[in-house]
Amino acid sequence: MVIGADTIVVLGDDILGKPDNKTRAEHMLQTLSGETHQVYTGVCLKWIEKHLHHLFAEITTVTFRDLDENDIAHYIESCPPYDKAGAYGIQDWSAVFV
């Protein structure tokens, strides 16, 4: 079985992928501060031997509290966000943002 998945964060008309540097991560988190956004995750399951596949997507609505510079700096240092859409993973320390 092969499993593939990816996630994007959407705020208004803006799609936030994975930040490629600290400045971009800071900007993403500042943009999400105090805002409600959607997190889209698409998944594909493929059972090669049986030529079967299943595709699905989930949408989650998340509201961040207002974040200050210290919150953002601490998160980026503690949980590097460079592999996370929107510069955060809800399973990480960023759960305190909601």
Automatic annotation (TrEMBL):
<dbReference type="Pfam" id="PF02545">
    <property type="entry name" value="Maf"/>
</dbReference>
<dbReference type="InterPro" id="IPR029001">
    <property type="entry name" value="ITPase-like_fam"/>
</dbReference>
<dbReference type="GO" id="GO:0047429">
    <property type="term" value="F:nucleoside triphosphate diphosphatase activity"/>
</dbReference>
<protein>
    <recommendedName>
        <fullName>Maf-like protein</fullName>
    </recommendedName>
</protein>
<dbReference type="InterPro" id="IPR003697">
    <property type="entry name" value="Maf-like"/>
</dbReference>
<keyword id="KW-0378">Hydrolase</keyword>
